[in-house]
Specification:
Chain lengths: 401, 401
Amino acid sequence: MISVFEATELVLGSVRPYGEEYVAIEDAVGRVLAEAIVATRDMPPFDRVAMDGIAIDYAAYAAGQRQFEIEKRIAAGDPIGTLSDTHKAVEIMTGAALPKGADTVIPYEALTIEDNVAHIVSDRVVQGQNVHAQGVDLQKGATLLAPGHWIQPADLALLATEGKAKVRVRRAPSFAILSTGDELVPIDQEPLPHQIRRSNVYAVQALLRQYHVQSIMLHLADDPEAMHDQLRALMGKVDAWICIGGVSKGKKDFLPQVLEALGVRKLFHRVAQRPGKPFWFGATDEIVVFALPGNPVSSIVGTVRYVLPWVRSCLGLPWDYSISVQLAEPFRFDPPLVRFVESELYHDSSGVCRAAPRPGHGSGDFTRLAYTKGFVELPADRTHFQPGEVYPFWPFHTFVA
Amino acid sequence: MISVFEATELVLGSVRPYGEEYVAIEDAVGRVLAEAIVATRDMPPFDRVAMDGIAIDYAAYAAGQRQFEIEKRIAAGDPIGTLSDTHKAVEIMTGAALPKGADTVIPYEALTIEDNVAHIVSDRVVQGQNVHAQGVDLQKGATLLAPGHWIQPADLALLATEGKAKVRVRRAPSFAILSTGDELVPIDQEPLPHQIRRSNVYAVQALLRQYHVQSIMLHLADDPEAMHDQLRALMGKVDAWICIGGVSKGKKDFLPQVLEALGVRKLFHRVAQRPGKPFWFGATDEIVVFALPGNPVSSIVGTVRYVLPWVRSCLGLPWDYSISVQLAEPFRFDPPLVRFVESELYHDSSGVCRAAPRPGHGSGDFTRLAYTKGFVELPADRTHFQPGEVYPFWPFHTFVA
């Protein structure tokens, strides 16, 4: 049995790149950028008018002139114009390019206009005001978004401004999600009294989909030869497997031996944690295999704590997406194991993020998943955990911050 | 000009329900449940064996018996069996139903088995141990997930266990996202020196898509008659419009009058905030119209602070999804306006969520969107904001907690 730390190191030691692909800008949110987005123009690309009003040459104002005849009008979308007489003004709209010869914009709020002559009624005009100067935000050639950036909704404005209708992103590894256990029936089937429906696989698939992982689902027979054939047929079809169940010490737990017979090299079996202790992990040159225990909470913990960090690392994101939270209530756990405990999560009115443990009746109890937001990770070398102490929290739903 | 509080009240006063629809379980994450998910069986549905080992009658153990002949084997997926002789044992697997006549499971770790006889080597056996008793997590008829629940990845395990291959969810309002401004060209076009590409609309669409909002994009001509015709043709096609630009005081800002000519009742125009002051809001019986100023940061602020709360409220989610954060650095803002300031966000090592303001060069500067996570909302009646003070933070990417 190895520690959670050692298991994490071995999982991250199996990280590989899975190439790149193009997606439409509309599908880019949540993807990891594989190219640098470089400003091909200054930002703004021209001296951009930021208020509606008149554009003047500040020198005339500084010399005391307060009345400016309007020589023309320029709207957003009009080509860059010229103020031909520096003692006159151009009436101008937000978003337009500042005309040559002008350097300052006086907004309507500071004007009266009569018979095509604007009177400036403010004496607080500053040279260059209300002009969003070319290149002030960013200069041509600067990096807007770097490779490895995890694209969020607001970033699409930056991609669009650079004309990235298609965006080059990193490809996530593809998965097969493999359930085991003869007691399981498909979701659309009525279970007999001793049966239950397959359920974990849907949660695991949804957790993976947060990183745009493509996955297929398959149920394995509780029979070593049939299982061997099913898994051999899967070789080369996907990049990684998550097997659920069949890794404990029972008579039917022959998944580890089947995997090893298929040439999957065992990297560890059993981790000093609860839930999820019988976790088996291995790899070949082609695939990486996470074999998680079959209880619902165990398989979700294994996905959140090991599979998603591996996926993130393959994509070049920081593997550790846990956040630091304060424990909201005391908790006790005696065995010398890391304890992952389902918890509610909230931001209190002082800005502190707090987690309240809501352990169920063991790893088979998944009724609490509906109102918990993830797991607090409590270290193995302590037994009494007090309110206010800070621990890592692993969310079910990935946070950005 | 009205306050941010009043504007919020008026926006939320226009909340309407938009019906329900069915989605496949695979597409249910992020949707809002429209039905109660009720347990149709106890959870677990039978006395479920939680460890591999032997099932015995505890009375025999209590009477001193330590050797149990194995009378049969039962695996997960086998029908519910019976321990016919209460002085014998059934060898049993995790996930199986406990046989009638047995009440306690001794794991392999506490056994030696020789010649079909199990010897119990532990003296710490407790009646009922390693049995996940029928109904202990939840009883038949109890609510697993209530209507209005915002479905997260782990919840799919609960939907699947109840056989919900299709899930009834609330329908989000559909949107048209309408850009204005003759200086804007499509994303796939090379802009001339005085032009820029349409960009805000992509960010706004991505922000909406977090709530599974369907939207179309359309560019409006900077001409009142053409605009009138385009908007009239759109009537009845979608539930809500977001217009971007054309609401300030410029000569080309005739969007408010066109909207009113179309029968859209103005509920307010101009809000005491920066950025986004020229925000116009109105409605008819059929549509709700958010007309946001066209600067990139303004339109994103308007979407995050008003449109998304409206969408959430239409779906029956709490409208206020801001979180309380501590300011990480001092900030000063003198005008008597609410200031929404782009900020970085992080959880520090004491569990506190902190926001660091990163204001750009005005609302036209959207280069900071790549490394800020949302907006801090600073009240209008103060000018100096100090580190450690707590304010609401509106994230670009929706948090669950």
